[in-house]
Amino acid sequence: MPLLASLDLGTNTFRLLIAKVTDSTTLVPIVTKRVIVRLGKGSDRNGSIQPHAFEKGIKAIKNFSHTINQHKVEKVFAVSTSVARVAKNGDEFIEKVLEQTGIPVRIVSGFEEATLTLKGIFSAVECNAHKSLLFDIGGGSTELILTEDTIPVQIASLNLGVVHLAESFITTDPPTSEDLSSLRINIKHMLQSTDFNNNTLNPIKDISQSSLIGTAGTVTTLAAIDQQLEEYDPQKINNYCLSLKAVQGIYHLLSSTSLAEKKAIVGLEQGREEVILPGAAIVLEIMDYFNFKHLTVSDAGLLEGILLDAPVAD
């Protein structure tokens, strides 16, 4: 089995996975690393990745490259998502990564990001439902994927990223009721603007027929907070059932505490304090809009999907 690496260079977080790929649906993780870079921070001001974030991102990839070299990885597959798609200097960032680390990075569309995420999720999450709605909340966008018997039938990429939402709507610390109202209204309007509608998934009467599955940092962090995990454990995250009531309670806690107070919340990853609230708001609005009372959490997603889709994994 070849030793491969994937890089997910997101708007908020950069992640590394080194794994052995056994077939197109199974991999064995060897090393996982993540660092909150906030590459998209401030990019709304002039449409560009800001110098500090630019340099921080390059430094993070250099550190990943060192780890990759230590493990004698056979091949590296790297993708960048929302911020690189839209930033004026997104291509410049990708070129600098190649120049300084030798790692080629592919900018993927929202559609491709969603399909890769789907592969990753179903490699780790048990799903017996006929129809499922999957979502991936990122720093710059949120992807929705409707599946039937795990096959994608509808995909949407929304301009709902936690970095941009935090910068646009959270004006005070802690946020005001006006901030929170504007945030939730914006998210709801974005959901209503998609091809998805609240008839896409009928009101849930039988969980064996329909399910909601969430992945990425916001959702896994909510699951860690709900379990009060002092140390993050993917095995306790994958397939964890997160109730609407639990998400509502965590959202209330997050919306009523300052950034300094959030640092004391057990399960909240250091560096995620500024963006976890808008992320939780997205989860709540998705659950409300599509009438779900529970969601299944997946630690696996885009990072795993990249490797499972790689040519050498065929």
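(the above was protein one; protein two follows)
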Amino acid sequence: MIKRVETKADLKQFILFPWTIYKNDPNWVPPLIMDMEAILGKENPFWEHAEKELFLAYDAAGKIVGRVAGVIDHNYIKFHDELVGFFGFYDSLNDPAITVELLAAVRQWIKGRGLVIMRGPMNPSTNDECGFLCHGFNEPPCLMMPYNPEYYLKLVESAGLAKAKELYAYDMDVSSGPLKRLERIVQSVYKKLPGLTVRPINKKAFKEELGKALGVYNAAWEKNWGFVPWTTKEFFYIALKLKDLLFPDTALIAELDGQPVGILIAVPDYNFVLKKLNGRLFPLGFLKFLFYKDKIKALRLMIMGVVKEQRQRGIEGAMYYESLKNAQKAGFEHCEFSWILDDNTMTQRAAEMMGGKLYRRYRIYEAVL
């Protein structure tokens, strides 16, 4: 039986249900409950241009056996001129009947609003966690990357969904990164572009820096599959939350003659810490956070882009070089490049040039309604 989430108690059950699925999985990283409440709550500015409906599946005994969300992002529809609705926050016991019922509820909800394609998972958009892990189940995920049982793939396929896209993640050994080779290349780039500077984001002028970063981000990713421009309110909302988590020396802005042209954001993999908190930061979780945060040895390269007019001039390489040099100095050992579209061969080659090895893949599914 499928029921809509209508009360605060329902919402709490929706948020806590993954603990039923993953309680014995050593690779699962529990999300912070307070973060999930914020993502799904009214204060999240994403919902100013999007709507959602949350569903829970119950068995005959009244026990929750699955969950899913329907999401309609009106900014996505306008930007891509595509009548698409999304499903997300999917979790289920290993029973095809449950998945069929859950996704049927989302299909009906999306179709009832005049849309013709259902795609996902998006939690709740491509600017957040998205996709099902489909290769690389042997270790915990990196920060803000999804993780799921392998049987989820068979369940959604049995419900009539097919692959729409795959997203790649590369792992690089920071300690053996190609720093010397990059140094020679980057020196020539700086000679050709004497007005180029690559510098850490200035946290003391953080809001001003965010304005620069947002402009580059929305310009650099404009043609990417699934991309939707951040609104200023959304970008500031997320960035201000992440401010204290940034490692300044791997959060870089490239400027050419004083104008921002590129950004690179590599964040310490706080999943190393979150795994120890079991979803709760207070009261004891915060002490654990303070103890373990300086023991993080991995980064996730979340954002790297250059505005179209300045691409293929070596600016990307300069940002890679500066971030790698700083990461080595700080003692980081690994960096995940994620995610990269399966048809983005240019960025894939850049990851490989940096010594990255493809080690995880994520799949997005869709169905015509």
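Reviewer note on protein two: The first strand starts at residue 2 and ends at 4.
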